[in-house]
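User: I'll paste a sequence; please echo it back and then give the predicted structure.

Assistant: Echoing your sequence first, then the prediction.
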Amino acid sequence: MKLPCKFLVLLASFFALHYLIGCDKQEKPLSSAKGSGEIVVLTVAGPTTYYEETNNQFAGLEYDLASAFASELGLKVRFEVLPSTAALISNLEMRRGHIAAGALVPSSERDKRVRFGSPYQTIRQQLIYRTTYAKPVGLNSLIGRHVGVLADSHQAERLETLRIKYPGLVWSEFENETSEDLLRRLSSGSLDAIVTDSNAIQLSQNFYPNISVAFDLNEPEGLAWAFPLAGDDYLYNAAEKFFARIQTDGTLKRMLDRYYDNASPMNRIDIAAFMDKVNSVLPQYRPLFLEAEEVSGIDWRLLAAIGYQESHWDPSATSPTGVRGLMMLTEETALRMGIGDRLDPKENIIAGAEYLVTLKDGLPARIPEPDRTWLAIAAYNQGFGHLEDARILTQRKKGNPDSWQDVKTTLPLLADPEHYNDLKSGYARGGEALVMTENVRTYYELLSRLEKPYKPPAQQKAETPAAVPPDDNSSK
């Protein structure tokens, strides 16, 4: 079909304008962070870096670190999400950002292109395999197998050095992908093995129960932020001071604990059962959890995680002690929340959500998230009085009573007469509250990656682009 000349001219004009705009963007230098009042951080999306948690709230270790760094300098922070770690390096070279923060490992090749700061986390390169095959015992066992690695990555560099000793070793390199994409490929069966960093598998091992670690490929190495090779040293020097401080005062450990402390693998059978119920049972109750979020403001996926831990989403569940329903409410709690039938799933879920809000509101206002939520979940299991006893005991042991990481070490001591005899609420099986809270954290992490955050209809309508009116000349 021959296109009208007028249309071809308009099309050519459009692409010429688009090209000129693109050139202008490339040539326009990025202002200094100090001068503009804003740090532009290049990152990649993923559980080890940066992701949307709920209601347009973001999380991830790199997000926490960069936000805290910018706040310390009194600057704003803006994140630019790129498709791969290779893109982080190339875009930083072109000065499209002030910092690249994407779980980056310095390497001999990368050191020629960017400047790395001090390491803030130690990881190892690991060979990950699908457990439907025998566990690889060495690199020779990978010859003839389909191995995957990220293109232009430090893992690819490592394999190149190993090929000198193992000339039959071959692999596929994937561009514009992340470690999460490789793990998904491996789990689905399109790859036999991959090489990735230990932090990636640590946060994903419960999400993909059919994969596991075979062996390490190298000694531990550090993750670090990257900066342009030359230019303004202001941010580089400030970052060095920032990381030195947070390593000394314990801030870095607390940030790491938020993501990695509960990342130990669950029983594979338990995870498989959970994933099966996500597909077979959760759809029936999802609307009720969404309604509970509207009522309580608590992420529906967290409420669903509590419901699974408590009853495996069984609305008729009943414990030997008389706790009943999908969210396993005591009779006292049901009366307090004003519900008459604990076996009605709608009433039970909404009451459980409102009870969790009550527990959170009862904690001191100074306690930040996510500690506030984890402490409230422990109280959901043991009662507020026993949680307060654990916090008092934590303080006696020179810990931080506002930190879940500290309080959880003292919860099991509530069953020890040496300790509970001197506490207001007495004996409690505090270890159960610890296990319950840690399991909920794991289920919540899984649901956060399986299910989208809820957007109320009013918000969805506000975000929907207005319809474009028809062109009067479109039919001419």
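The domain at 125-218 is CATH 3.40.190.10 (D-Maltodextrin-Binding Protein; domain 2). The chain has a mean pLDDT of 86.
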